[in-house]
Write a structure and sequence with these properties.
The complex is a heterodimer.
Chain A (H helix, E strand, L loop, with lengths): L8 E6 L3 H12 L6 E6 L2 H10 L4 E5 L1 E2 L2 E2 H8 L8 E5 L4 H9 L4 E4 L5 H58 L11 H28 L8 E4 H18 L3 E4 L7 E4 L1 H17 L6 E8 L3 E7 L25 H4 L5 H11 L3 E6 L5 E8 L7
Parallel strand pairs in A: 1-2, 1-3, 3-6, 6-7, 9-11
Antiparallel strand pairs in A: 4-5, 8-10, 11-12, 12-14, 13-14
Chain B lengths: L6 E5 L3 H13 L3 E5 L2 H9 L6 E5 L7 H8 L7 E6 L4 H9 L4 E4 L5 H17 L1
Parallel strand pairs in B: 1-2, 1-3, 3-4, 4-5
Classes of the chains: A alpha/beta, B alpha/beta.
Chain lengths: ~375, ~130
């Protein structure tokens, strides 16, 4: 254990009664081989200012501070998010106050006049030690989380390049770069190509999620015309949907409907939702995209008549790595990250993504985004 | 359609991918040179190579795509620079565009046909201009 945190300890005493401060100071001076250097803040305001300076190791806070109280300081300073412990000083022992200070994450509680130098020293040192251990655990968790994110990122990057190589070489064979492919080999190569495509999608999903989770995703905030964006999305997906003998029906969108956001990110979200609708719907069915707007928002609904989602699975729908069991889930395959990522992106746009069950069968996903005329934070 | 043969430089550090791109592009009758990092690409250009198109990976050792663009400065050359991008590399693509790159193609979507379509598009633009 690092013993340095128990040496040269700077204590800030926030106490508006000068006599009480003298008593506390006297108690400090009777601690043998004292590691403490006590400083005095004589008002609530001076105390808050000194806490903001963040140069002390522990705070001793009087409960009565003029019109304020020590718990006001706890509420403002939020001890749970600081590296220093807060210890409250009161005139009398009071259980309800004790519970309140505990709830506000104070480290301890001392009753004025009833503690000596030994108790004061022990209270401060133990509070410091608990905080130190707590902080070490937090640091370890942060480190562990970082290591996990680094691992996902590095592994995905390393996996992506060879998977892209497979795509190119298989693509060349399928497209006849190395001579005509015998008909009986064509479906096998196509399946290999599709498996590789799925692998690439999962790798990309992992990377996108790692990026959004680490807070490194920078989104554009520009007016985006919905009609143009939907045209791009449907052009992109029409072939895939036609391959499944399905149709994609898109509402006519008024060209004036514009939202504020990142065009690429929203395009990927829409592609994901529409592609899901298609993947989980029967051959020959139609996927419908409906769009409308009001004064402040635009809404895009993707409606299918596929396998749908059971009511009991709904709470987990947008969680990470969740794949909902349904008759097609093993056949379709996926990372369980698409909807999680979509929700993060929509949340970052101050928008909303919702799900409801379609009757008699299928799913309705709706995405609501702030309209361009609205001020977005 | 009779397409003019172009000189195309591939800058990609992964050997297998670099080779795949070479095979795809040369199959369409274009003249292909390759480099495995930005420095090699600059050396080739300084040695007299005048590419019509540069396919540029962004993440490479020695000198990455951004470093290459800063030194090469596409605005002073005729080559069309096509950046190889990934879903998670939007910032780098944006920076590449401010440094003069002209297009980008998502690696995960760059099937052989797609690469040849991009080249045909650029050849068409160059003929028209």
């Amino acid at each position: 254990m690092d013993p340095n945190y128990l040496k040269d300890i700077r204590v800030l005493v926030i106490e508006d009664d000068e006599d009480d401060w003298f008593l506390i100071e006297k108690t400090f001076s009777s601690i043998l081989d004292s590691p403490f250097h006590a400083e005095w803040a004589s008002t609530y305001e001076a105390g808050i200012a000194a806490i903001e300076e963040d140069r002390h190791d522990v705070y001793l806070v009087d409960y009565r501070l003029g019109v304020h109280t020590g718990t006001d300081i706890l509420e403002l300073a939020r001890p749970e998010s600081r590296r220093q412990p807060f210890i409250l000083l009161t005139g009398v022992s009071d259980q309800s106050l004790e519970r309140k200070t505990l709830r506000l994450a104070a480290a301890d509680y001392l009753v004025k006049g009833s503690f000596d130098a030994t108790t004061l020293s022990r209270t401060l040192l133990y509070a410091l030690q608990r905080k130190y251990i707590e902080q070490r655990k937090i640091d370890q968790l942060i480190e562990l989380n970082q290591a996990k994110e680094d691992f996902i990122s590095i592994a995905s990057h390393q996996l992506r390049t060879p998977a892209t190589g497979v795509k190119q070489y298989l693509g060349m064979v399928i497209e006849g770069f190395a001579g005509e492919v015998p008909p009986e080999q064509q479906p096998l190569l196509k399946m290999a190509y599709e498996s590789n495509e799925r692998q690439l999608r999962i790798i990309n999903d992992l990377l996108k999620v790692a990026q959004v989770d680490s807070g490194k995703l920078k989104l554009q905030r520009e007016p985006v015309q919905l009609a143009g964006l939907l045209r791009q999305v449907t052009d992109e997906l029409r072939g895939t949907i036609a391959d499944r003998s399905q149709s994609l029906v898109v509402d006519t969108v008024p060209t004036t409907d514009t939202f504020i956001g990142d065009e690429d990110a929203i395009r990927m979200v829409l592609e994901n939702i529409i592609d899901n609708a298609s993947k989980y719907s029967p051959t020959g069915s139609a996927i419908s995209v409906q769009v409308w707007s009001d004064d402040t928002t635009v809404t895009i609904e993707v409606i299918d008549t596929g396998v749908g989602i059971q009511a009991e699975d709904l709470p987990r729908l947008f969680e990470k790595f969740v794949r909902i069991d349904n008759p097609l889930s093993t056949k379709v395959g996926g990372s369980g990250l698409g909807l999680y990522w979509a929700k993060q992106i929509i949340d970052l746009h101050d928008g909303r993504i919702d799900y409801r069950i379609n009757q008699p069968a299928g799913s309705i996903f709706s995405i609501v985004l702030p309209k361009a005329t609205q001020t977005v934070k | 359609m009779a397409e003019k043969s172009l000189t195309i430089l591939i800058v990609e550090d992964d050997e297998d991918l670099n080779k795949a791109y070479q095979m795809i592009i040369s199959s369409a009758g274009h003249s292909v040179s390759s480099a495995f990092d930005g420095k090699q690409a600059l050396t080739a250009i300084e040695g007299g190579l005048k590419p019509d198109i540069i396919f540029l990976d962004l993440r490479m050792p020695v000198l990455d795509g951004i470093g290459f663009l800063k030194k090469y400065n596409p605005n002073n050359h005729d080559a069309t620079v096509v950046v190889f991008s990934n879903y998670d590399a939007q910032d780098e693509v944006d920076e590449a565009f401010t440094l003069g790159a002209h297009r980008y193609v998502l690696k995960a979507r760059a099937a052989p046909k797609e690469l040849l379509r991009i080249i045909a598009d650029i050849a068409h633009e160059k003929q028209a201009s």
